[in-house]
Amino acid sequence: MTNHTILKNVLITGANGQLGNEMRLVAATDSERVYHFTDVAELDICDEEAIECYVIEHAIDCIVNCAAYTNVNKAEEDTELCDKLNHLAPANLARVATKHGASLIHVSTDYVFNGQHFIPYKEGDDTCPNSVYGTTKLAGEQAIQALCADAVIIRTAWLYSTFGNNFVKTMLRLGNERAELGVVFDQIGTPTYARDLARAIHHIIGHGVVPGIYHYSNEGVCSWYDFTKAIFALGGITTCALKPLHTDEYPTPAARPHYSVLDKTKIKQTYGVEVPYWMDSLRECIEQLN
Question: pTM of the prediction?
């Protein structure tokens, strides 16, 4: 490497979560940039002054915000903390990014929609969240767009990985523990392997930020019931009987979108991102877990 090569400095927040951990694996293959992985112990993104000090000290060029309050049911009562992490903290990151000429990549959610559609959601479709989680995530998006001109917002859905707690790992555990399991079949979406999303974010960092909102999930469509069927098949679970449930048979504190398939045309056309089929990615994840 020659001395005049300037390495880009990338700050990853929420580095101990599913996506943050996947970003660590993807970053390990990148010799052109220096990655700074932080979670709340290293950097409290609710503290704007702390963010600014960090950005100055490490000459940060790009911030990737993987931090969020994601417990959808708990959010219904934990509204203040949820708003702090999903709305006010991204606003802090946006202000600091703008002030110091850094770009910002922020991860949002399909929960900004109410799920009443029947064709895949495009980025410009009307938002109408029907949960505290969705409302705070939308507020975060709006704050970023108001405060930072050099920002990419990526809405994703049904995120899972080899790290942390998620639907795939829960179903593998329950499938091995129980003789019967009920799963809703009338909520339709697309699972997203966090490693695929991390690869897409890495591609965007390398390509250069084209500001705006984008959608990213894996290709294809399924219900939670179909998803679980596939998890059992790939995980070799044969002793647990799977029963389809209506949403009203499985009440939860937070309302969930009935249909939240995301249209990915924009991210594919803008960045040339390849989007794998959800079953192929699920197979990769379960192989990694085994």
Answer: 0.96
Per-residue tokens: 149: 């001109």
Q: Which residues contact 4 (CB under 8 A, 6 or more apart)?
A: none
Domain ranges of the chain: 8-165+191-219+258-276
Measured CA to CA, the distance from residue 197 to residue 152 in angstroms comes to 14
- Catalytic-role residue among 69, 111, 133, 193: 133
Q: Which structure tokens are listed for 108?
A: 């949002």
Pairing type for strands 188-189 and 8-13 reads unpaired
pLDDT in tens, 165-203: 999 999 999 999 999 999 999 999 999 999 999 999 999
- Determine the CATH number of domain 8-165+191-219+258-276: 3.40.50.720
Q: Taking residues 22-38, what's their average pLDDT?
A: 96
Residue-level pLDDT at 7 = 62
Tokens coding 10? 């990338």
133 labelled catalytic: yes
